[in-house]
Amino acid sequence: MKRNLWIMYAIALLQGMVFYGPIATLYRQAHGLTIFQITLIESISLSLLILLEIPWGIIADKIGCRHTIIFCSALYLISKIIFWKADGFAGFLVERIMLSVVESGFSGVDSTILYLSCGQKNSQKVFGVYHSMSMAGLLFAAGVYAMVVQDHYPLAGFLTVISYGGAAFLSLFLTDVRIHSVKKTDTEPFRVTIKKAMKNRSLLLFLIAAALLSETHQTITVFLNQLQYQKCGLSGSSIGLLFVAATLLGLLGFCSSSVTGRLGICSSLLLFCSMAAASCLTLAATRLAFPSAAAILILRFSNTLFQPLLTEIQNRQIRTDNRATALSVNSMLLNSVAIGTNLVFGALAGRKHA
User: Fold this and answer.
1) 318 FRET partner, CA 20 to 30 A, in 2, 31, 245, 312?
2) Membrane-spanning residues where (predicted)?
3) How far is CA 136 from CA 97, 131, 169, 251, 329, in A?
């Protein structure tokens, strides 16, 4: 099972190599999209993702995690090819629709493979390393962008296609994992799994809070940070350096288990949320370069520590063989919240940026 961990780490590394990452918003703008169109496409994508979450969870539990990862990795590759060739709203919308299929398929399946492959021991650390590998890939891509790609946007898209092709190839070598009950009883019906997940009120409230934190981080550190940096008068090279710094902070996911071990789960959650809230308040109150950069870096750091803990908490709550289905219900709720935040953030950012 250790081979699964190394392969999943490698897949995360390669799929983290998004060579247009430093100019994700500018790339789309250069191909005819407005800020509101970007966030609108995100919300459409999330709506489809929500519709596919539970069906994909059921399919994954039936066909196995390995086959699900293989199919989704191949589709991921195709979506990046479409992104590379896209020009205008329709092209990027098609790419995001395909991405919705991929992400709903991956949802819960990757963490299931990791959770079961590590024997459920040190799982939070494994999740942290997995997230860190993704950020390591992004850091490598950022370095290549700064030294080689620069303003050659099509090259950034092409290199991303190559890295995702490598990830799709590696997925073929995964070994399937399944969890079985000790007693030879009938498998729990999927409708029962879904009903149980929807009735866990404490977990549902936690997931809503987690979605607000995660989507705020996603929108600010991926899309809106570049607009804030421009308003602060930062140069392209400075923006690139800050992107590298933010990516380096993303490598610290493995520290999440240590922080949680020392502070406890409740204190850790309070700390991570407080850091994020302070960062957002700072960004809302200033246009100065240093506090803006510091706030965005702190926001990235808090999310880096939070995500492995979020994954760990979700996996601990599952008491069924239909693990992928249960995790898909959680993802459905997370993405439902994300639709609203994307539209609100996009409309407000477009108004302020106009």
Assistant:
1) 2
2) 7-27, 33-52, 64-84, 96-116, 128-149, 155-174, 203-224, 236-256, 263-284, 290-311, 332-350
3) 26, 9, 19, 6, 29
